[in-house]
Amino acid sequence: MVRFENVGMRYGLGPEVLRDISFTLEPGSFQFLTGPSGAGKSSLLRLLFLGYRPSRGLITMFGEDVAEADREQLALLRQRIGVVFQDFRLVDHLSARENVALPLRIAGVGDEDILAPVTELLDWVGLGDKLDAFPQTLSGGEKQRLAIARAVIRRPRLLLADEPTGNVDGVNGRRILRLFEALNDLGTTILLATHDERLIARYAHPCMRLVAGQLLEVATREAAQ
Q1: Which of 49, 51, 63, 217 has its CA 20 to 30 A from that of 40?
Q2: pTM for this one?
Q3: Which tens digit of pLDDT belongs to each residue from 70-101?
Q4: Alpha carbon of 199 to those of 169, 173, 204: distances in Å?
């Protein structure tokens, strides 16, 4: 479980970009995060990925108080989190297979234990025929699915996605959402940040709404018919 209690965040000595944020992500839940540009969505994701610590308030992740965690504990917590970045952040000189294998190699997994899960996952996201392709040869939708595969190869308990459909067309956007829902069905907790209100309306997942650094709404809705 992830819990924020009256969390504030600022960069340096500047004003708070997030104020009095409180919410809970239950294990296995799927929630949207929305709001206008500059509302604080990316800052909230940075807190969730433990890239920053809050300026005040309490963040509890997987039973650990983030403020009390040392560098080693933070590293262990990050291993339970997967991130899909808006700009993909793929490594251009590595093939699709090598990009997905990278988190396993960093974790010290041996070559004999890498090939099978990487191949299986790329096939699952529809890239089984692109194992040796390099990112620059892939379409926007293919790059996004590759980024998703890399983010989940270590089976994170929490998956954060920053505008994962922002660079793809509607068809690929819906395909990406189906992948996220399939991951959620397997038990992964998902928080998906998007400004696309039409996308949100298609699905009956709860939606958190940020405006000017404050959480104004946590709503459960029915999907559009």
Answers
A1: 63
A2: 0.89
A3: 999 999 999 999 999 888 999 999 999 999 99
A4: 12, 8, 11
